[in-house]
Write the structure tokens for this entry.
Amino acid sequence: MRCGFFGSAVETLGKLEPVALAQHGAALVAKLEDSDRWVRVRAVEVLGKLESAALAQHGAALAAKLEDSEWRVRKAAVQTLGKLEPAALAQHEQALAKVAEEDSNGQVQIAARVVMHKLEPAAGHVDAVVARLEDSEWPVREAAVETLGKLEPAALAQHGAALVAKLEDSDGYVRWAAVETLGKLEPAALAQHQQAIAKAAEEDSNANVQIAARVVMHKLEPAAGHMEAGDARGERGQGCATCRGRGARQAAGGQVNA
């Protein structure tokens, strides 16, 4: 059971406001070396709640976690470093670039690409994320889809066709993520993919994908009854997001969901 893994001290500190939390930075840094991987993950994540100036004081300790044996710790370290202001972040550019190119885990590589994009917006890091849409592992494809969803709508629109292709992915959770990411497009750009999304709403084998697609279709056709159909599908479908969430499946190393 993971509930007790994080360590009561770390969880308690995580409830503090940033100013108060800053007084306990050293205690959190000490937890970065805990033997429990989940404690290390949470310590990194809680450090990420600090204000940028306070966080920068622990940049070296976080950069060291880019070499952690647990990929979740490395990913959390990348994402937390990404919260630094550009000047402070640049001090760790070499280490982050190495992760983006060489880390053994695709999700960690993608996270590093996102951070590197902040430092080198014209260096093709987003293109590297797009390439991961065809990765052989579903968590990597899903992470790539979700990462694209963090782009500004205009930038996201450039990758609309690639995302639509993921509506045909063999994994239901990748398709689910693709629908939700497409839903972040502006209406004019979204309308270009209406036919594909409508097909997902009607024909996808996964109830969660169908429901997500109906939510997106409602943005395009608010009077077409998509939400009512989605509610009915959810009542008799394969389960809700809370019960069958993608994150829970990743943590469990879940299997393909058609």
The chain has 20 helices and no strands. The longest helix spans residues 106-119. Residues 234-245, 248-256 have pLDDT under 50 and may be disordered.
